[in-house]
Automatic annotation (TrEMBL):
<protein>
    <recommendedName>
        <fullName>Small CPxCG-related zinc finger protein</fullName>
    </recommendedName>
</protein>
Length: 82
């Protein structure tokens, strides 16, 4: 079981939920997930948004209150390069 560091303290502030201010937010991934993303989703590190990418679709999901909004980051790129 791998442990993936999602949010550094800096990122936790940057990506804090606009509704409840929780730092427990994750990126929403669109497209067909590969094994890395499936594992991350199983462990709750990302949310899979479906196979189709919609324009202006939300890219952050709050695990505390369920709110979703648009705020891109490079988490997936880091995930694949680690
Ligand atoms: Zn929230």
């Amino acid at each position: 079981m791998s442990t993936i560091e999602i949010n550094t303290p800096t990122e936790a502030r940057r990506f804090a939920c606009p509704d409840c201010r929780s730092g427990a937010t994750v990126q929403i991934i669109y497209g067909v997930p590969d094994d890395v993303l499936r594992t991350a989703a199983d462990e709750g590190d990302v949310v899979l948004g479906g196979w189709l990418t919609e324009i202006d679709a939300p890219t952050r999901h709050c695990r505390a209150c369920g709110s979703e909004w648009v705020d891109a980051d490079e988490y997936v790129e880091r995930l694949h390069s680690s």
